[in-house]
Give the backbone structure.
Amino acid sequence: MVRSRRWFLCAIPVSCGAALAEKNKPAPSALFRYSDPSTEFQVVRLTDPEFTSLLPPHFARSQPKRGNFLLYASDATGRMEAFRMESKGGITRQLTEQEGLYPASLTLTPDERSFCCLAGDKLLSVNAGNGRIREVCQLSAGFEPAGFGLAEDGLYGGLIEKKGELHRLRLIKMTDGSSTTLAEASEPMRNPIPRPRRAAILYGRGSGIWLANYDAQQNYRLKVAPGETGPYTWHPSGTSFFYLNFPADPHKLHNIREFTPDMNSDAAIADTTQFVAFERNADASVFVGASGSKASPHVLLLVRSVKRELTLCEHRASDPRMVSPIFSPNSQNIFFGSDQHGKPAIYTMAVEKFVAETDSTQ
């Protein structure tokens, strides 16, 4: 088993904006630890709420398997750039100097030596050690970025770009930047997530969820449960995906469901305390979610086997969707975003007392 890691046991509240002025210059910790007012569990604020700091999308890779650093975006230098925060001590380094960085495009590559990002009209691969940049491809002329997801093998990426009301999903070959247009529509597209162990991309389109094959021969809307569809995420095996369902009846609870594309089957997993964002742990045995309830603005765990929730802490975000909680690779910590103390910041807490450790080396 991989040794359990607690993130940031010590907290030193230091403003780090000035120290981040130079690329690759280490900045002092901005960590702040406190007891949650609802549960009295220990929570650590990782970034200074004087600046906006954002986690990558819930489906992206924000940490290596060992969990020794966190990739995130921040405007601490005056504009959005990519940063690396070390798990030991919270020391931070600026990784990019790119105009027009799109924070929702950050993701580590499978070898964990580089990360991808969209900046301006380019998709870039950046060496996380020396900062060397490789331009993978350019966006279509006149288009701007609207989403990016990297396949688990790192060979392909799904790129969503938009121009006015027109949205386009492109499959990018990461080695040479060649591309294939998989879908085009005059309605919003979002969150392209390549399917594990399959040649397909799951993506949001309008009010539905669609699946497009790499060969561009199939692109169809999936028959998920009635109501509004929230965030979605693949099962590790790629055989199914989980998604949040928001029933049309306001008296019914938001619920987590599982859809199996190859069988066209849909099944309920559990009702939730009005989750508006969620993510699974490494073996899909536990979910972490953010409640959209104004009366109970909490981050919670939901154990799949018993369909029970545990309240972890308050998030008190102005928009609960920004909380977008995630697990560490070994399932022993969670991370989430909130603007409860000022501008959007990143928070973490240990959950090793409640969630079994998973093997992060696989």
In short: The longest strand covers residues 101-108. Residues 232 and 243 are 4 Å apart (CA to CA). The chain has a mean pLDDT of 92. DSSP finds no helices and 29 strands in the chain.
